[in-house]
Amino acid sequence: MTKKKKGKAGKTQDAQETAANDEEQAPQEAAVEAQDLCAERDDLMERLQRVSADYLNYQKRVQRDISEAREFANVELVKSLLPVLDDMERALATACENHGQDDPLFGGLQLVHDKALETLAKFDVHVIEADGEAFDPQKHLAVMQEPSGEHPPQTVLRVVQKGYELKGRPIRPATVVVSKAPEEDDSAQERRD
To answer: How many Cβ atoms are within 10 Å of 63's Cβ, its own excluded?
Structure first.
């Protein structure tokens, strides 16, 4: 019997030690679990802040796109009117050559042309000035280069076709002839050799 009593007493003592160990480990496990939950919360808060910032940026971008679309909604209409202006200018040049500036046909056509430019100016459409300007690939389209000793290289010598801009943004570049450095004579090259 003594062995049975010792066995029962040993089991009771083991159970008490296990319970004590469990009581000691429970606060440690709770602390670890609380730290994990805090880290997860912080991660979720950080992700929420990023998503919120992305959403605000998206809203701003959409507003900017809508505003820009409204501002430049007439681009296609204006582009379709530019060939009409080109034809008017060719007609003006021909009328001036053949009939002179005193001709009523020339005067009437000039008035219509000027009125068209005034109307376009009300919508912030303007001719791109190019003569004598430095070549700008944003505003000019070079179709030819000519040697010139009078102008520095990459200067617009003459305009082949006018360019137009809407609210400062080119809608058709000016087609231009650009200067380049003059070519040296063959005799000058032979002297160097």
So the answer is: 10
pLDDT of residue 170: 93
Task: Report the alpha-carbon distance of residue 12 to residue 6 in Å, rounded.
Answer: 10
**pLDDT tens-digit series, residues 6-21:** 555 556 666 566 655 6
Could you give the angle at which helices 104-122 and 75-99 cross, rounded to 10 degrees? Answer: 160
CA separation, residue 102 to residues 86, 115, 124 (Å):
22, 19, 32
Residue 85 in tokens: 């202006």
Please report, to the nearest 10 degrees, the dihedral formed by the alpha carbons of residues 92, 94, 95, 96 taken in order.
80
User: CA neighbours within 13 Å on the CB side: how many for 42?
Assistant: 6
Question: Which parts of the chain sit beneath pLDDT 70?
Answer: 1-26, 185-193
pTM of the model: 0.63
Query: What is the per-residue pLDDT for 51?
Result: 94
Identify whether the C-beta of residue 166 lies closer than 8 Å to the C-beta of residue 192: no
**Domain 125-183 classification at class level:** mainly beta
| Cβ contacts of 145 within 8 Å, gap of 6 or more | 177, 178, 179, 180
Which residue carries 């409204």 as its tokens? 70
The domain limits of the chain are: 1-71, 73-123, 125-183
